[in-house]
Amino acid sequence: MKVVGIVLAVDIIATEGSGWSFTSPINYSSLVSSAKIMPSTDAAMIRLLVSVGGLLFFLFLELSIPYRPSTVSKFKRWANNISLSIFNSVILRLFFAAPILQTTFYVSRNQLGVLNLMSLPYWTKMIATVVFLDFMLYVWHLLNHEVPFLWRFHRVHHSDLNMDVSTANRFHIGELAMSAVIKIGLIFFLGADLFGVMVYEILVVATAQFHHSSLKVPSWFEDIYWVLFVPPSMHRIHHSVVIKERNTNYGTIFSVWDRLLGTLLRGIDQERIRIGVGAYNRPEKLHFHHLLVMPLTHPVR
Asked: DSSP string spanning 225-265?
């Protein structure tokens, strides 16, 4: 879902002068017109700011205040992860970006979905969109670990031998395609509008990049941040090779879902955590082409 967020953000943030506010209704006809006439150069610039900007920002922090040294070549890992991300972005843009975008226009124009059945302030609907979609992302993430067929694809993400900001881009196109189809259905059910989905997607990208990053964060900040959100130490446990640790801490934006549903794990010695999947411990077997065919290979836990 995370790369889908980057692609969607590219396509929907070109709305300067469209009159958006948190308290006034959105002029959707103007919004649609703006989206249709948006130059491709603007879309490319927004993609650069959202995806590359975040990567470079957290890379700078990782190099300045690293949590731990790399155990394998950072350059080779980044080459594989970013190559996979570029490949995914092309496919997602070709087949899924427009349907997601048009679904938000359609439900808003026709006042469809749960949110449009209620008379609520606009800011309330926007928050509800973020909270609901993040909860469904939690459920989807949990299913990717518990359902063997889905794990075949999701293990591409977990097979990274070190965890840093580039890991947030390391997903198989099969997983992202399935999540994109599910997202279209969720937007239709909820009646989420363009701005609400955009805010959610940006938060997913930013928080995923943060909690995957290998940077040293003060313990006092993590203790406070962990109350509602997902810090790097929480997600580091989730990337452990130990299966009982890996099958916990599924939250992306909010940590409250793990608290409420009993999947939160704390108190793990961070220094002893080994990142990855036990069966995939050879860097030379984790290149771009290996990651693409991994779901077709023998199942491993």
From this structure: HTTTB--HHHHHHHTBSSHHHHTS---SSBSHHHHHHT---
